[in-house]
Amino acid sequence: MIHVLTTGGTIDKIYFDANSDFEIGDSLLPELLAEANIHDGYSLRELLRKDSLEMTDEDREMIAAAVSQTSANRVLITHGTDTMAETAQALKSIAGKTIVLFGAMQPARMRRSDAVFNLGFAWAAVSLLPEGVYIAMNGEVFEAGAVRKNLKAKRFERA
Amino acid sequence: MIHVLTTGGTIDKIYFDANSDFEIGDSLLPELLAEANIHDGYSLRELLRKDSLEMTDEDREMIAAAVSQTSANRVLITHGTDTMAETAQALKSIAGKTIVLFGAMQPARMRRSDAVFNLGFAWAAVSLLPEGVYIAMNGEVFEAGAVRKNLKAKRFERA
Amino acid sequence: MIHVLTTGGTIDKIYFDANSDFEIGDSLLPELLAEANIHDGYSLRELLRKDSLEMTDEDREMIAAAVSQTSANRVLITHGTDTMAETAQALKSIAGKTIVLFGAMQPARMRRSDAVFNLGFAWAAVSLLPEGVYIAMNGEVFEAGAVRKNLKAKRFERA
Amino acid sequence: MIHVLTTGGTIDKIYFDANSDFEIGDSLLPELLAEANIHDGYSLRELLRKDSLEMTDEDREMIAAAVSQTSANRVLITHGTDTMAETAQALKSIAGKTIVLFGAMQPARMRRSDAVFNLGFAWAAVSLLPEGVYIAMNGEVFEAGAVRKNLKAKRFERA
Questions:
Q1: pLDDT mean across residues, chain A
Q2: I want to staple D104 with a disulfide (CB 3.0 to 4.6 A). Which of B158, C133, C137, D115 is the partner?
Q3: What is the pLDDT of residues C58-99, one digit of tens each?
Q4: Cβ of B139 and C114 within 8 Å?
Q5: How far apart are CA D38 and CA A117, in angstroms?
Q6: What does the alpha-carbon distance between residue B90 and residue B60 come to, in Å, rounded to a whole number?
Q7: Domain of B74?
Q8: A78 is catalytic
Q9: DSSP designation for C10
Q10: DSSP assignment of C57-103, as one string?
Q11: Contact assignment for D151 to C18 by CB distance below 8 Å
């Protein structure tokens, strides 16, 4: 059983014409998983709807608490990419679980996006990796504490 | 020959992860027209990349000048929806041409958008309507000076 | 009020893995119209699910009867492209209505398709054209009896 | 380095209006990988364009030869789903490589498809799994020789 926690980020952004702006909407993950023929074997909980630049230490504690609370030992977390590495670091102390954070550079609701590939990649990663905390982005797996987002290259890399 | 002028608006917004924001990008119209098997019979000129809340009287004069300059007597204009009615009004004095303004409530680059339907609808409208200035939105044709955007209902209606 | 009759064709084809094949599915038109913010002002009736190469004279009589029966004087018909010109010809005798046939070269369910543009284009055509029978394809309006599908160029043209 | 071999199947089917039919086209994988920000770290070779019901023993020998020839020790194979289990079985004798077969129930070119999720899932699987031959479908990893396609349920399961 995979437990999915959604915290926001680009992946679930929606365009709101009224504000000429975007906001984080309902997570598209259930719909994307259904399109991939995955209808069970997971639970999903919406925790936050935050752009990760706005994540606070309290938010990270809330995420850590939610990870610890679930009986599932495989946990997938959607998260904004800007501070994903910080949140991963904050979860390193949790033992006995495989925890994978992922997100996207383009909203899942765009015609062209990395969101669905990243979801599939992360789904396999959380199913196959041993206990620990990881980031799964741009087709690679990184260990928490040894990863950073390269803003210029717009990708994650080993740190 | 249809002359297309792009001025910006939601229809051509792109998501920029670097800014956690949507900005107006290259117009997607040539790509959308190609997908519809339309490869010639039109010319396209990018005039502005403005959210229509930021349109000024000078911008509207620039648009009017561009409309007057083209030898084509059928002119299609992409425009943000918020002040489309004002720009339509400002073009009413131009004689001898069929001028149709349209845009979209969701960017053309989204998986679900009104953009492509609106483009097709406006393409027929500019081909069939007699001289005058019109707005073509939510599947209806409105005459300039007698139309407004109903913000709450998120649609255009007769005024 | 626009009355929409769906008769099949490429536009509504679905891929069926079980048959390694395609079949005509439920019409996607209501969903596409909703995405374009069109929720009323029309009625829709599924008449047939035929590839137009398989249309018979009896099918064409059925379509003509359905057109005559509706009280709406603006009728849109989805139809396979291969024999759309024949069906248009068969409807020429119906007076007092604006009848527009359209379809698509690629199913509406494909990522890249002419279907949505064609729907928007035809929606405006049926709203603006005077009484008569027309085909609206590849961004042009053709009169029934003076149009054919150019198989090599994959587009409709004046005959 | 991941070596990708494409052999056909539903995943790369294109709709051909001329034949009123779906045929296997150029593989969409390079475009999908680019959308996922993956531009290097892999090589791709188009081997076949076959619906897997038409795969022969000679085809399977060709695939096995191509797998053995590559210096890469991580090989991803796109394949039709109907006989994917047979081909996986035929590759079991190849030692020293992680070989993952995957495909899709809906063409990657459809608006709604499992193709992109499956690609991401398989990309992680081939990166993380130990030597051996596997099928990665519907969000699960199966070992060759212990898997079959459940036609009725339209999914792969342990055999």
A1: 96
A2: D115
A3: 999 999 999 999 999 999 999 999 999 999 999 999 999 999
A4: no
A5: 10
A6: 7
A7: 2-158
A8: no
A9: G
A10: HHHHHHHHHHHHH-S-SEEEEE--STTHHHHHHHTTT--S-EEEEE-
A11: yes
Answer yes or no: is pLDDT of A18 > 90: no
D1 vs B20: which has the higher pLDDT: D1
Taking the C-alpha atoms of residue D106 and residue C110, their distance in angstroms, rounded to an integer, is 10
CATH of the domain at D115: 3.40.50.1170
Contact B82/A at CB under 8 A: yes
Average pLDDT over residues A51-63: 96
Pairwise CA distance, residues B67 & B74, whole Å: 9
Determine the residue of chain D that is closest to C11 in CA distance. Answer: D17
Number of domains forming the structure of chain B: 1
Confidence bin at A32 (pLDDT 50/70/90): very high
Q: Report the neighbours of D using a cutoff of 3 or more CB pairs below 8 angstroms.
A: A, C
A81: closest chain B residue by CA = B17
pLDDT in tens, B68-82: 999 999 999 999 999
pLDDT band with cut points at 50, 70 and 90 for residue C21: confident
Q: What is the distance in angstroms between the Cα of B2 and the nearest Cα belonging to chain C?
A: 11
> What are φ and ψ of residue D12, in 5° steps?
-110, 25
> ipTM for the complex?
0.97
